[in-house]
Design a protein that fits this description.
The protein is mainly beta and 175 residues long. It has one helix and 17 strands.
Length: 175
């Protein structure tokens, strides 16, 4: 029964959805939304343990175009997360607003077994396949309607289900 719950617990249950909604619509000091996806502008890019060059390098990214998620800002530094969950700080000039994504990065295996996603001619199930994309493939996002994304990779263009990509949010729309 609700009458047995402490008032604080009831208040937190009522406020939680509002806090969650605010977290999704947060604006950083740059005036841009947090969190948001961007990509690495160049390589190598040093990932640091804190927002400054005095902090040690935690990792070195060696793949330009890799999508990363910015979730915090401090001056010219951006705290990011990559597709594997690694976090750290990168200087803003090393990031690009160009949108890219990784295909099924959670399905990459080291056992030699390969996983693929189909690149389709149209944004709907049953469309004719254009190519097979291996898990971990880096693609350029052209547009997304919340379910399907038009992407480009090498000389191919086609559609892939949005849920098969890391670098775009569920239900996000891109023009």
């Amino acid at each position: 029964m609700i009458s047995f719950l402490p008032k604080l617990a009831i208040a937190s249950l009522l406020i939680w959805p509002l806090v969650s909604l605010q977290a999704q619509e947060r604006i950083g000091k740059s005036g841009l939304p947090l969190p948001r996806f961007v990509s690495l502008k160049s390589n190598p890019v040093n990932l640091r343990t804190g927002p400054g060059r005095q902090f040690p390098k935690a990792w070195i990214f060696r793949r330009a175009g890799l999508p990363v998620e910015i979730y915090e800002e401090y001056g010219d530094w951006r705290r990011i997360r990559d597709s594997e969950g690694a976090t750290g700080w990168i200087l803003k000039p090393l990031l690009s607003g160009r949108r890219t994504a990784l295909v099924l990065p959670w399905n990459k295996t080291k056992s030699g077994q390969r996983t693929y996603a189909s690149l389709l001619s149209r944004g709907r199930a049953g469309s004719s396949p254009v190519a097979k994309l291996e898990a971990g493939s880096l693609v350029s996002l052209k547009s997304c309607d919340g379910q399907w994304c038009l992407i480009a990779v090498s000389s191919y263009r086609g559609y892939i289900e949005q849920k098969q990509l890391w670098g775009v949010y569920k239900d996000e729309r891109l023009n």
